[in-house]
């Protein structure tokens, strides 16, 4: 069992930045690939970024590439999402997820249904 807790959300103006940490507890954090997703009411959960167990490989949705950075610190059981140049369309609830196994391609990380554990989410609102 893995428990995930996101934080760091809030209200920010367009062009601003936020950093979202997701802290894991429970079983060995470094055994899990991690992903960040976002969701707005009435829509499906959307992939944002993914990172391999070691942190050596990262994957991004086209909509955030060049603006967002995913990273992890296995010693601190934490995965981060650094969000820069925020846009109003980035407004959503942001969730981190964990999944076991090994993956080396974008679609392995972007499949929300394959994630075993989720946090409760943190709201990000970007004003224009």
Secondary structure elements and pairings:
Elements: E1 2-6, E2 10-13, E3 18-26, E4 33-39, E5 46-51, E6 58-60, E7 68-73, E8 78-83, E9 92-99, H1 106-110, E10 117-118, E11 122-127
Parallel strand pairs: 2-11
Antiparallel strand pairs: 1-3, 3-8, 4-5, 4-9, 5-6, 7-8, 9-10, 9-11
Task: Write up this protein.
Helices cover 4% and strands 48% of the residues. With 128 residues, it is mainly beta. Strands 2, 4, 5, 6, 9, 10 and 11 form a seven-stranded mixed beta sheet that branches. A hairpin with a 6-residue loop joins strand 4 and strand 5. The model has no long low-confidence stretch (mean pLDDT 96).
Mean pLDDT: 96
The backbone outline, from C-alpha atoms, is: globular
Query: How much is the radius of gyration in Å?
Result: 13 Å
**Helix-strand pattern:** EEEEEEEEEHEE
Low-confidence segments: none
Percentage of residues assigned to helices: under 10%
Q: What is this structure, in a nutshell?
A:
Helices cover 4% and strands 48% of the residues. By secondary structure, it is mainly beta.
